[in-house]
């Protein structure tokens, strides 16, 4: 199933190996839009590197004034964000 227009869908495993390439693509998408929704519905597994990616995305979006929103965040990633005291940042 394809993501709706204006939605970037991440999938698979988000870990130290996959994050560098994803960051390049995420940064480019953030810099080229006023608004971007990122769906994590198809993420199979996410490490702390994934959390760092999402937080860096928020920082980049603030710099370039892009409205960035994460949707369908997997519970394991939300739990990691909760423990790291950044859950509210991801959900805002």
TrEMBL record:
Residues 9-86 form the MlaB-like STAS domain. Transmembrane segments: none annotated. InterPro entries: MlaB-like_STAS, STAS_dom_sf. It comes from the Bacteria. SUPFAM superfamilies: SpoIIaa-like. Signal peptide: none annotated. This is MlaB-like STAS domain-containing protein.
